[in-house]
Amino acid sequence: MARAGLGHEHKPVGSFLFAGPTGVGKTEVTVQLAKALGIELLRFDMSEYMERHTVSRLIGAPPGYVGFDQGGLLTDAVIKHPHAVLLLDEIEKAHPDVFNLLLQVMDNGTLDR
């Protein structure tokens, strides 16, 4: 439907969440998906984002803070490779604010800072 022009142009074509126990192949599925599609695989170790203040490393500083004009690691990577497979490894270890952020991105396809 998306390729036929019937999808919503401002929303992602697809958002997928692979969940399951260790060793079932979630990471391998993302690697193979990126290869099959011929696009970049963007991998982030989410265990590095356990504290609330580390969320700004992903998306950049909020308005009014030093560095607001600079992007974060995630935002810069997605701007550089807008059509990519995004692997958020060890997501269960991330701060709850990261989950709220991802919910917004997966639903709307955009990030409001």
Describe this structure in words.
It is a single chain. The mean pLDDT is 84. The chain has four helices and two strands. Strands 1-2 form a two-stranded parallel ribbon. It has one domain (26-108). The protein is α+β, with helices and mostly antiparallel strands and 113 residues long. The chain has helices at residues 26-37, 55-59, 73-80, 96-108, and strands at 40-45, 84-89. 34% of the residues lie in helices and 11% in strands. One of its GO terms (molecular function) is peptidase activity. This is ATP-dependent Clp protease ATP-binding subunit. It comes from Klebsiella pneumoniae. One of its GO terms (cellular component) is cytoplasm. InterPro entries: ATPase_AAA_core, ClpA/B, ClpA/B_CS2, ClpA_ClpB, P-loop_NTPase.
Distance between the termini: 30 Å
Structural class estimated from helices and strands: alpha+beta
- Strand fraction: 5-15%
Radius of gyration from the alpha-carbon trace, in angstroms: 15 Å
SS element count, helices: 4
Order of helices and strands: HEHHEH
Q: What does the average pLDDT come to?
A: 84
Protein name: ATP-dependent Clp protease ATP-binding subunit
InterPro entries: ATPase_AAA_core, ClpA/B, ClpA/B_CS2, ClpA_ClpB, P-loop_NTPase
Pfam family, one: AAA_2
GO molecular function, one term: peptidase activity
